[in-house]
Task: structure prediction
Amino acid sequence: MKTITVEQVSWESCAENIRPIRQAVFIDEQQVPVELEWDGLDEHCIHLLAYNNDQPVGTARMTAAGKIGRMAVLKSWRRYGAGSALLERMVSIARGDGLTEVVLDAQVYATPFYANFEFRAFGEEFMDAGIAHRKMRLQL
Result:
């Protein structure tokens, strides 16, 4: 049975669970250059891990300024609610921290997913790591 739970974790305690997910999704699957993926910001971000039982299946991070990023779900676990659970939890944390908005750089194909959570696109489409993106914002 596929039951998704989400936990807030620290980079220090869970990098060994976060790294393989981002490696599989961004570096292996999407061909993001290694040096762009490991940008040195992880130690300063809020991190979430999505689990099925004890198996890590997805992750996301947010900067102190409210920029959500590095949202990744293992291919075999997509469409089971892990992405939604991660995003809902991150927005809840942002609200709890008193932020007035959160932003993210969505891969263009994923903008409908974020729009379902009331994120709105702004600005022009741009390329990041060879992938088309749009900036999106959610007012809290």
